Amino acid sequence: MVGNTSPVSLSGQALLSHCDLSASESAAVYATENSTIDTCYIHDGTSGGIQIDQQATVTGSTIRNNSGTGVYATGSGTITSCQIIGNGNNTIDGGGIRCELGSSVTITDTTVSFNTGRVGGGIAVFDGQVTISNCQLVDNFADRGGGVYMHSGGTISGTPVLRNTAILGAGFAGIGQIADCDFSNNIGPGVDLEGGVIQDCNVSGNSAQGAGAAGITAWGGATVLRCTITGNTSDEVGGVNLSDGAHMEDCTVTNNTSTFEVGGVWCGGDGTTIVNCEISNNQAQQAAGGLKFQGGGMPTVSYCRIMNNQAGNRSGGISVQGASPRMYNCLVAGNSSNDSAAVEHGSDGGISGALFVNCTFADNHCPNNAAISSDVYKPTLINCVLANDARTEVSFSSGGAPEITYSCVASGWPGRGNVQANPRFVNRASGDYRPSAGSMLIDAGDNNALPGTFTTDLLGLNRHAEDTGMPDTGTGDTAIVDMGAYEFQGTTSQFVLTHPVPGLAGRQNMLQVAGAAPGATVYIGYGFRPGNTVVPLCGGLIVNISSPSLGGEIRADGAGVGELVRAVPGKASGQNVLIQAVDADGCAVSELFGYWFP
What we know:
Strand content: 35-45%
Distance between the termini: 82 Å
Helix content: under 10%
Mean pLDDT: 89
Number of domains: 3
Low-confidence stretches: none
């Protein structure tokens, strides 16, 4: 049927199959009352393609190059295994599919591509609920919501949303429940979520100019869970923009770039929270390589790692401007800039200064200033560690001297409970900033500074583990919290493990331990790659071996000495084997060593 000027109407379980409809002045087909359109080609109409209502179904069909909306849903319906391509124009909403008037539509296994709309180039949802699963939303165009726009909510799952273009929300804009999707290589901010949840998604390679983050913008109480936001580029925020009570948890924000400020995450507003995220290897040409607090309020960040971010001018790790953030149990390490490597606390500090509790700042670098610099407003640091950073740890101007207590500052700082000491990290070179046995960080913090809700450290281990081998130099009821983001889980002793004797592959070798608890069970672990592995002993101990294997078990004598004799397989010849001992009764871990077996 070619050139028809009125639609084909289907109702009462009617079936339209294997048809070719084109050049219609209105929608080519109106389907209602459980009717079905199957394997049809509806194309090149001067208006829309299909209108569906009342449980109509479109399956296996191609709706292509219509000047209006490809599929217009005003009621319930199903679209499955279709190709919806090249429909719409820049004056309408919903180029590929438009749902409104309380419609409830399910879209599965369908490709929606090269469609154009003012809002919702691929799919637009107004006053309806749409479920999108296992579809392809690619190369669509709009001012807002290039791939999808949802005004009233809906769900998207298992769907690549790729190479769409929009000023706001090139991949997605609006309110929705989004899971297991890939938002990549969109031109414009990848996701603009003003409510709802995005989880288990990849957001990568998106590029934006002006407002919004290239990766994800979340506001209005929106939640971002278990997402990877990587390789996005913007002249504003490279990775993620969080405000207005948004929450981000268990996410990785890495390798994003801003040609101006904020490579990783912009965060502001009361109730905005970030939990257990990694913000790493992001870059900003000017400032705030990793994380910027702005926009007022007291956002909260906890259990996060802000690492190896770079800024060309200032604040390689964190910038505080016009907000009063609270950070707990965080690691800020390896960040760099020309000025203020770890934290820049600006002159527009917000309601009060920033608060950092049980945070570790280490190995941050800048040639011209300190790791932490402040101006006018005073940041407060309690139970923190500042070590191995820039030419000095702290600088300030205009009366903005930080208030630091119960902290370890390598370059020294006056304050109650502060120490100037080597923190004795387990393995600084490999980024293991846990305190080792005998560290001055152990049991040296202020219990009153850490809210009771924070019961674990950055690794999820007991935040108030008591080391009976160290004096309690901190304050509060026992057990005293350690300084820094990590809690020492053992007991300080001289627990040691010897090298294997005679140290030959294919032969019997002997390992000895000393300084174990009398009569203790000692486990010998080995492996081939360094790492941090929690073993289920003493509430959680960490060995510095990735995927360790059990090499044997020793029963120490009354003096804490024991030995293990085992044959080392010949295949160990020519390999560097990492070996470590764990005292299961004394809750101690030996030094890690590597042995090259000839």
